[in-house]
Design brief:
alpha+beta; eight-stranded mixed sheet; four-stranded antiparallel sheet; 14 strands; 20% strand; metal-binding; iron; Oxoglu/Fe-dep_dioxygenase_dom
């Protein structure tokens, strides 16, 4: 039984990488990557800015909160629940930002010497751009693993709705902490909505992924200098459910401990039509018996085509409804 996720070294030969990534996408879809060339100093700077941002008072943070028309910005503590079965909203606060091509949609904080955020926007945009380049590389490996050309997803990356989110997990005021013997949830069990996600996390831990083989949650322990990649809903839909959209959750840190993470959500061009890929006969034959999806290679369609923007809006509205439901309970 697997007790951890695999680590894939991106300096390995290309054919080896394609095979390794293809294999893990058939199970829980989670893996560490090393030798990824993402600038370590940029990652460190982004975490430092994240801590300063969330250290601001609630009154200051609310000035750049997410707008009613869903333009990204600050998301207050316990704004939503990713798992509708949870009795309380998720124990985190966040700040979301779009790609540079949609920069006018992000609600940025005012940068002053007093709040120590001078350079925040530039850092975030550089982080976003570097992650987008890395995501294109990974998408090439995924395409080849599906028997497609390396550049198959080029149209997906034309003015993509990629998003970086700074997240702060904590348990709130002591008076709000109820010891009922149940794990406190930082982010409820869910799958990510895009093609895949690339995550930077600190060393606190708490991330868990549901493993199909063992039918249990396994921890995703932080590794120095590694990034975490997990497959998402759009990749599952493109492969008609053959590749797994990874179910995962985050346990809230103990009282007084703070966890920070920075996921990059690889969400494509808003008009990109998510439809079953033209997978080759050889690929369909290869996947038979290797996937837990009964429809693998059978031609039975699991989902109707949908655009990226329509799918993301549907998922966002469901998550907010979950948050409202728990707030009223």
């Amino acid at each position: 039984m697997s007790t951890t996720i695999p680590t894939i070294d991106l300096s390995l030969p290309r054919l080896t990488l394609v095979e390794l990534i293809r294999t893990v996408c058939l199970t829980h879809g989670f893996f560490h990557i090393i030798s990824h060339q993402f600038p370590p100093l940029l990652k460190q700077e982004a975490f430092e800015y994240s801590k300063r941002l969330f250290a601001l008072s609630a009154a200051e943070k609310i000035r750049f909160k997410m707008s009613e028309n869903h333009y990204p910005g600050y998301e207050a503590f316990q704004s939503y629940s990713l798992d509708s079965t949870n009795t309380t909203a998720d124990l985190n606060e966040g700040f979301g930002m779009t790609a540079v091509c949609y920069d006018d949609e992000t609600r940025w904080p005012v940068e002053t010497a007093e709040n120590q955020l001078i350079g925040f926007k530039v850092c975030c945009q550089q982080y976003h751009a570097a992650m987008e380049e890395l995501s294109k590389t990974l998408a090439g490996y995924i395409a080849e693993g599906l028997g497609l050309e390396e550049g198959y997803f080029e149209e997906y990356f034309v003015k993509p709705m990629t998003q970086v989110r700074l997240i702060h997990y904590f348990q709130g005021e002591e008076a709000d902490i109820v010891d009922d013997g149940k794990p406190r949830i930082g982010a409820g069990l869910h799958s990510d909505w895009g093609l895949f996600t690339i995550l930077s996390q600190d060393n606190v831990g708490g991330l868990e992924v549901y493993d199909l083989n063992s039918e249990s949650l396994i921890p995703v322990h932080p590794l120095p200098d590694a990034l975490v990649v997990n497959s998402g809903d759009l990749l599952a839909r493109l492969t008609n459910g053959v590749y797994n959209s990874s179910q995962h959750r985050v346990l809230a840190p103990p009282p007084g401990v703070h966890r920070y993470s920075i996921p990059f959500f690889c969400q494509g061009n808003p008009d990109y039509l998510v439809n079953v890929l033209p997978l080759s006969k050889d690929w369909n034959e290869w996947v038979q018996g290797k996937s837990k999806c009964k429809e693998a290679g059978s031609g039975v369609r699991k989902w109707e085509p949908i655009t990226v923007s329509a799918y993301l809006l549907m998922k966002f509205q469901r998550s907010k409804q979950g948050g409202k439901k728990t707030a009223a309970a």
